[in-house]
Amino acid sequence: VQLQASGGGLVQAGGSLRLSCAVTGSITGIKAMRWYRQAPGKEREWVASILPSGNPNYADSVKGRFSISRDRAKKTVYLQMNSLEPEDTAAYYCNIESVYKGYWGQGTLVTVSS
Predict the structure, then answer these.
(1) How many C-beta atoms lie closer than 10 Å to residue 86's C-beta?
(2) Residues 9-25: what's their mean pLDDT?
(3) Which of 18, 21, 9 is nearest to 95 (CA)?
(4) Which has the closest alpha carbon to 3: 108, 109, 106, 98?
(5) For residue range 23-45, what is the model confidence (pLDDT) as tens digits?
(6) Which pLDDT score, from 0 to 100, does residue 37 have?
(7) Quick one: CA torsion of 67, 71, 76, 78, rounded to 10 degrees?
């Protein structure tokens, strides 16, 4: 199983990006799909989660600006990021937690210029 994150890049403040996390292989017993981020010199922090039922949850810092979704047929998890701020600059990682183990993508870099 591999998770391939993509969609990062350089954007001006106020702009938008959509991150994708494509799953290669099969994962059973999924408990949650998440996005995390890690800014330079800071610890990795949770950004958003979506349950198999489709229920999303967000960190306060991104609530109202980011939206997490998934496409089961494409085995892909998305993070739509709007109204981006320089503070959102970080490497973004997707994570899928199953009842057996957790899986991580390689990270995609988002840079927001002021």
Answers:
(1) 11
(2) 97
(3) 21
(4) 106
(5) 999 999 999 999 999 999 999 99
(6) 98
(7) -10
Do residues 72 and 44 lie in contact, with contact meaning Cβ atoms separated by under 8 Å? no
Please give the C-alpha separations between residue 46 and each of 24, 34, 90, 94, in angstroms, as whole numbers: 23, 8, 12, 10
Short-list 98, 104, 102, CA closest to 31: 98
Per the structure block, which two tokens stand in for 63?
């609530």
Tens of pLDDT, residue by residue over 79-103, are 999 999 999 999 999 999 999 999 9
What is the rounded CA–CA span in Å between residue 66 and residue 80?
Answer: 5
Contacts of residue 91, Cβ cutoff 8 Å, sequence gap at least 6: 8, 37, 38, 39, 107, 108, 109, 110
CB-based burial, 2-38: b 16+ in 10 Å, e otherwise:
ebebebbeebeeeeebebbbbbeeebeebeebbbbbe
